[in-house]
# Entry
Amino acid sequence: MSTSTVDSCAPPEDQLLSVDEARQRILDAVQVIDASEQLPIRAALNRVLAEAVVSGIDVPPFANSAMDGYALRCADCATAGSTRLMILGTCFAGAPFDGEVQAGQCVRIMTGAPMPAGADAVIMQEQVEREDDTIRFSGTPPDTGENVRHAGDDTCRGDLVLEAGTRLGAAEIGLLASVGISEIRVKRQPRVAFFSTGDELTSLGAPLAKGHIYDCNRYTLFALLTQAGLSCHDLGVVADDREAVRAAFRQAGEIADLILTSGGVSVGEADFVTETLEEMGDIMFWRMAMKPGKPLAFGRLQQAWFFGLPGNPVSVIVTFYQFVLPAIRKMAGEPARAPLLLQAQAGENLKKAPGRAEFQRGILSRDEAGQWIVTSTGAQESHLLSSMSKANCFVLLPAESTGADKGEVVSVQPFCDLI
Ligand code: AMP
Ligand code: MG
# Structure
């Protein structure tokens, strides 16, 4: 097993690495997983397409009506005065009309029904008066093609429907169904294993001993990974003991493409994650110019990419979103994309000391004038998980910022960008 340390990537002790630089180094290092599998589309939600999808049919396959009304020939419609047409028959969605519309005729038509031969527009039923087997209408006559949905409007046979690397959401699953595709080749998902480290951690269900806290990071990580569409192996709580940490590393290294740990990456006397990664794998250890989330161990353990996340619960979420999620997306075969940032006015003074970029927890809303306003969730220490729960966005305050006064414009990353 390799035991090399990637020294060239470690900044000097007094120098902190920026978030962007760290993210770029991570994205440069991790590779797309090669393997793929064939799945029914119902099982493919959140999966990433391994190959481009080309349509074998036109969608819609035939011209049809966009309205309930009457299919007619525009040439029959008077430009002044009223028009009277004879109703030849009716066509429903799924039950075409077989005849042809001739001069002075029309066909009663429902939304989605195929356009009858000879007709070139549909007039809405609300615009006509019906008298027995005729309709009468006046006013501006319909244009050719009005209220008609043409064959191939959505997708033409031979069109690229979805590119390789597309993550399949509800719309994409529906789109595949609309072109008649029931199975699809998707990338194999990264296999993720994670565990918490810390002698103070108690798992749920057991009473809290003196000096103990409940382990929340494993539950948070489970939720973050599930939200990202991944299934994962929870390896539990590992004690602050060199041998126990080594054993957990061995177990994780055998099953995972991606390993996440929380805690034990600082320089305390009970912090064994960093040195174990150094010993058993390849490590890049960074002290980050960010808050929360200063220490981050990144590297390789057997065939897996390894993230040693900080222990504080807010730091876990922030570093997951800023570093782990982009890595997962790359491993899963998605193209890189820039974060969605909004500009919002600070609704109150936002305090910050210069030095490290901060990901403060904010509440984004709009005022009566439609302007985005962001306020703070309050105290911002990294152990206050309630600050994450109250928030709907990160407020990104750059390293050099000394905070923002009320009314100043700041960058905001809505949480909806992070799923
Ligand atoms: P560490 O990096 O291990 O020194 O942890 C930093 C802080 O995060 C300490 O206060 C830990 O008790 C806390 N912490 C570490 N892991 C967890 C966890 N899984 N759940 C809740 N708090 C944790
Ligand atoms: Mg610890």
In short: Helices lie at 19-29, 170-178, 217-227, 242-255, 273-280, 313-331, 386-390. The chain has four domains: 13-33+189-331, 36-59+153-187, 64-149, 342-418. Residues 196, 198, 200-201, 213, 215-217, 262-266, 268, 310-313 surround adenosine monophosphate (ligand 1) (CB under 6 Å).
